[in-house]
Design a protein that fits this description.
Blueprint (H helix, E strand, L loop, with lengths): L7 E5 L4 H12 L3 E6 L2 H13 L3 E6 L5 H15 L4 E4 L20 H29 L2 E6 L13 H21 L4 E8 L5 H6 L2 H10 L8 H12 L10 E4 L8
Parallel strand pairs: 1-2, 1-4, 2-3, 4-5, 5-6, 6-7
The protein binds nicotinamide-adenine-dinucleotide.
């Protein structure tokens, strides 16, 4: 991919899973990778994996739900690398106390809605607010937001707060793309299908895995590297003319025009 060598990319929520897949691929492509996550040990392990392959990567603890912590993460990147060329928003609260009790409209507690939106949506808003001015000042850059197939699918009747948070990310993506495209700031998104990262391995929801494989025209479940490849492409110069798009990367689960 063209233009990733030396690009300074900050990834918000990339200790494990899809975000880590993107971090590893970006490291392989020669980008300088900054991984921010609540899970510092996981972020450090992913950064170490990138460095052991000859790449450049550092890790910081931060919280998408805390504006001061977001500002501090972005400042770390500027202090360490002198600026930012790209942002990947990948984190989401997938913990049992949040998505695990996101049942349906009548049974999902308001606190679960608030926490879900605070991390999954407002976290991306906080990161974008902190990074967009730096990209404008630098003459451009690229943002990739990780949404979900849950944003556009008919859904499974569960997880309304999660699906709403992921739908709102589509609007945020178009908003940034529209307002700052002329400043060279591109903003795109991906909607993963069922991707087997460590969280999904731990959840071991074989019913959901079987349902996905039975319904989707593909040979296998997704891997973090499948998403990592597309996220890296969207951050690269090969994607110079791609703006405001959200791609379904899901083995064909959502086919759209
Ligand atoms: N895996 C899938 O099947 C799938 C499908 C659709 C969308 N997604 C999306 O992909 C992204 C990654 O999910 P994943 O499935 O790889 O799971 P994951 O648990 O491996 O990744 C989520 C990451 O977000 C971090 N995080 C959670 N709360 C945070 C906070 N407050 N501040 C900072 N970091 C925080 C976690 O520590 C973790 O590293 C999410 O946005 C998720 O919604 C995943």
């Amino acid at each position: 991919m063209r233009g990733l060598k030396g690009k300074r990319i900050v990834l918000a929520g990339a200790a494990t899973g899809v975000g880590a897949g993107a971090a590893v691929r970006l490291g392989e492509e020669g980008a300088a990778v900054v991984i921010g996550d609540l899970n510092l040990a996981g972020a450090e392990a992913t950064a170490a994996e990138i460095r052991s392959g000859g790449g450049t990567a550092v890790a910081y603890e931060f919280d998408l739900a805390d504006e001061a912590s977001v500002v501090e993460l972005v400042q770390h990147v500027v202090d360490e690398f002198g600026g930012i060329d790209g942002l990947v928003n990948a984190g989401a609260d997938l913990s049992p106390r949040t998505i695990g009790v996101d049942k349906n409209l009548l049974e999902t507690d308001m606190a679960v809605w608030q926490r879900t939106l605070d991390v999954n949506l407002l976290g991306y808003v906080r990161m974008s607010k902190a990074v967009v001015p730096l990209l404008i000042e630098a003459g451009g850059g690229s943002i990739v937001n990780v949404s979900s197939g849950a944003a556009v699918s008919r859904g499974d009747g569960k997880r309304p707060a999660y699906a709403a948070s992921k739908s709102a990310i589509l609007a945020l993506t178009r908003h940034v793309a529209t307002n700052w495209g002329r400043d060279g700031v591109r903003c795109n998104g991906v909607m993963p299908g069922f991707v087997m990262g460590p969280t999904q391995v731990q959840q071991n929801d074989t019913e959901l895995q079987d349902m996905f494989l039975a319904q989707v025209p593909t040979t296998r479940l997704g891997r973090p590297s499948d998403l990592g490849a597309v996220i890296a492409l969207l951050l690269s110069d090969d994607a110079e003319w791609i703006n405001g798009q959200v791609w379904a990367i899901d083995g064909g689960a959502n086919m759209r025009f």
